[in-house]
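User: Quick one: structure for sequence A, then sequence B.

Assistant: Sequence A:
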Amino acid sequence: MNELDWKPDKSTPVPLYIQIKEYIKEKIETGEWTLGTKIPPQRTLAKAFGVNRSTIVAAMEELIADGLLEGKRGGGTKIINNSWSLMTSTPLPDWNSYVQAGSYYPNLPTIQVINKAEFDSNIIRLGTGELSPDLFPREMMKQVFEKLTGHIDSLGYEEPKGLLFLREQLSRYLKTIGIEASPSSILIVSGALQALQLISIGLLRRGATIFLEKPSYLYSLHVFQSAEMRLFGLPLDEHGIQANKISEQKKRQNASLLYTIPSFHNPTGILMSEERRRKLIDVCEKERLPIIEDDVYRELWLDSPPPPPLKAIDKNGLVLYLGSMSKTLSPGLRIGWIVGPKPVIERLADIKMQTDYGSSSLSQWAVAEWLASGLYHQHLEEVRKELKVRREIMIDLLQRYFSDIATWTVPRGGFYIWLRILPSISIRELFEKSLEHGILLNPGNVYDKHAAQYLRLSYSYASLADLEKGMFRLSKVIRQLIT
C-alpha cells in the first residue's frame, strides 16, 4: 500500500476529496486492498496525493460513513468491509491472516525499503551490488542474440540439469579456474539464490545449523531461516573466515554445513588467502563438514587473480560450488550453476523440476553462446578495467570526505567497501536521513545485527557523477547526525 502511484486531478470540477474517496473505494472493491488492511496515516496520504490533510479527513469520513472503513484512536484506520460484503451475510476471506500464516519469512523491513527504492530513478544507489547500466555490453549482447537465431530450433523445456550445450561450455570454463567438472555434475539454476533455496529444502533437515562468516550476505536473506534452520556466525579476519574456530564450534553447534564467500566477500570485500583456503578444506574434511562455496564475485578481481577456488583443491567431494552470471554480466539473465557430487546434483535437479521446470531456455542459450564465442572473456577484461577506475575514484572520495569520520580497507576485487563509521550514530536514522537526501544505503546491520556502525558501500552501480554527488551528500548527513 506504500506504492500510491496516483494523484487527484485538480483541473476537473469533481472535488478532490470525492476523487480520493472513489480511488480508495475502487482499491477496496477490486480486492487490491483487502479486509483488515490498515490505511496509511493521514499525513502520509496527504503527501502522496499532494493535498491538504483536511481533504484526506473529508474522504475518510465519507468512507467510514459508507461502512468501508473503521477508525480507532491509537489504532489507525482499517478496512472492515467492501461493497460486496455489505450486501451479503457470508464473511469474505481475510487475506491478511493468510499472508501472516505463510511459512516463508518476509524480508527484513530495511531490505523491503531498499528493494522498492532501487526503482526510483531519482535515487543515488550507493549500496547496490550490481554492475552499472553504463557497463552493460550492448553491442556484444546484440551479437550473441543474432547468432542464437541460427542455433535455436525451439524454446521448449530443457533437460532437468539444464541445457547440455551450456553445461559443456561451463565444464570447459571451470577447467580454466582449476575445477574438473563433467557436464553431468553441473546443474543450471536461476541464479545463486535459487541454488541456496534448493539446497535448503533438498539436502538439510529442519532445525539444522549452518556455519557462515559474520557478517554475511546470508543474514540479509531468510532462505534458510524460513526452512527452520539456524545460522551461526564465525569471525572473519583479513585472510577470511577463521578456520581454527570450526572444530570447537562444530561439537557445540552440531552444524550441518558451512557457507562461505571466499573471493571478494559480501559485504566486507575480503579475499580469503590461499593458505586459509587450504586450512579450511583440511578442517572441514576432518570434521566431515560440507561446504557451500559461493564464488559469484571470483572473476571481478582488479589487481591479480584470486587463489584457486575451494572446489579446485577439494579431492573428496566436500564442496558444492556456486557460480553465476548475475554479477559479471547481467542479473536479468537469471543464470547460475551448482557443481557437486552426482547424487546431490540429481536430487537438486529433481526438486528444481518440481519448482519451475527449468531455467529460461533463451537465457541458457544466450549464456552458452557468451562462453562458446569468447565474448565473455573479452567482456570480463573490460569490466575489470572499468571497476578498477571506479574503485580508485571511490577511495579518493573516501579520503576526501571521510578520512576523519570512518575507516575502510581497499578491496582487491568485487564491488564492496565495508565502511566503519567512527562516531557513534544511529544506523537507522542515517538510513532514513540519507533516503530523504536521495541516497540509498545498505546498512551493516542487515548483514550482522551487531554491525551497527558499518555501511556496505558499492562502487559498481552508480554513475561516476552520482558517486561523487552521493558520497559528498552522505558525508554531510553523517556530520549532521554527529553534531
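Sequence B:
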Amino acid sequence: MTESSPAQTASTPSDQGRHPADTGPPASSGGWGGLFSRQFAAQASILAGGVALYAMNLYFTAALLPSIVEDIGGARYYAWVATGFLISAVISAMLVSRLLARLGPSRAYLAGFLVFAGGAGLTAASPSIEVLIVGRVVQGLGGGLMAGLGYAVIRTALPERLWTRAAGLVSAMWGVGTLVGPSLGGLFAELGLWRGAYLLLLAAAVVLAVLARRSLPGPSGTGRATEPLPLASLLLLTLAAATFSISSTVPRGWATVLCIVLGLALLAGFVLAERGGAATVLPKHTYRRGNHLKWIYLTVAVYCTGVMTETFIPLFGQELGGLSPLAAGFLGATVSVGWTSAQLFSVNMGSERARELAIRCGPAVLTAGLLAYGLLQTGSASGGRVLLWALVLVAGGTGIGIAFPHLSVTAMRSTDDEAEGAKAAAGLNTTQLIAFSVSSALAGTLVSIGGDSTLDGARYMVFGLGALTVFGTVTAAMSLRRGRAEAR
C-alpha cells in the first residue's frame, strides 16, 4: 500500500472503524495471521517497531551510562541524560494527534523516525556529556512521536477486526524493550562500543522510516482543520514532568517532597486548563460528566505505576539476593515478562463478558503480585526465595497483560469522531509517559525513606506503589460502569 492507498478514504464519521480491506468474516481474518498477513505485515511492523525502539532506548541507555561517563565525563549530569529524554518525549507525545491530522500517518511517522535517528547520531558523536544530553533531547522528541503514533495510527492503518491484536502488539513492545534493552546495552558496554549502540538505533530508525513512507497512508484530505495548540496545557504538563523528574535528582528530604507536591499541583492545574480550554491535549469528551475515558486513562496510569517497580528490582536482587548484575537485570524484567506473555492470550478473548472481567481483575492481580513480592523480601535471600520473587512478579505482570489491550481499544472506540478518536488513542501514550515520570519519582522517594537499609527501602517502595495500584480496582470498575451507561 502506497501513500495514495484507498485507506485514505476511511476517514468519514459514517465509516469510522471500517477499513477498505475489512471484508470477510472476522473469525477467518482477525487473528494473528491476519495482522501479520502480507497485506498488513508492514503496517504492524512499523507500529510495533516505533514503540520497541522507544522502550528499548530507555533501558539501553541505563546500561550504557556508566561506560559513557567513564569515556567523556560528566558524572554530575548523570540523571539529566534520562530527564532530558523524558521531558522532550512528553512534549512531542502531546502533539501526535495534531501532527497526524496535518501530515497523515506516513509523513508523521517519517518525521518521528528521522528526528529520532538524528538524535541518535548526535548522541553517538558526542564529545561531551552536554552535547550528549542535547542528542538525548532530540531523540526524545522523535521517540515521543513514535510511541504515540503506535496507538493513534491503528485506527487508520488497520481494519477494526485487527485493532485488539494490534493494540496488544504495540503494548507488548514496552515489555520487549525491557527485556532486550538491558541485555543489548550491557553487551555494547562490555565491548566498549557505546557509540556503536546508538548507531544501531540510527540504522533501525532509518529502515523503519523508509518502510513507513512506502506502506502507510498519507493525509486523508477529509479531516477537519487542526485546532490551535493548547499552550497552557502543554506548559503545565511539561513543567509537571520536569518537576517530577527533578525530584529524583535533588537531595532526599524536604526538597524531594516539595518537588512532588509542586508536580501534583501542576498536574491539577493541567486538568483545570483542559476542562476550560477551547483546545486540549486529551480529547474533549475526557472531561465530560459520565464519560468513561477519564477512568481508562487513570487505570492505565495505575499499570504504569506497577511497572516502575522494575527500576529498583535489579538493585534489590543484587543487594538482597546476591545476584550478578546480569541475573538481577533479568529479575527486573519479570513484570514485563508477565505483561507481554499474558497479552498474547488476552487478545484472543472473544466475548464482551470475558474482556470486562479482564479489565476488572487486572489491577487486583497486579496488586497481589506486588504485595506478595514485598512480603517475601528478606536479607541474604536464598535461591529458592529469589525464584519466588520472580514468580510473583511475573504473576503481577499478567494483571497488566490481560487488561491493557482491551483498555486501549475501548479508548479508541470512545468516540465516532475521527480526530477525537486519534487523540484518544494518542492520549494513552501521553498518560503512560506522565505516569512513568510521577511513579519514578515516588519510587525513588519511597526507597530513600529506608535510609541505609536496602530491605526497608524495598518494602517501602513495593507497599507504597502497591497501595496506589489498589486504586486501579476502582477506576477499572468505573470505566466499565460508565461505558455501559453510555451504550444505553
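The chain has 19 helices and no strands. Confidence is low (pLDDT under 50) at residues 1-28, 482-488.

User: Thanks, that's what I needed.
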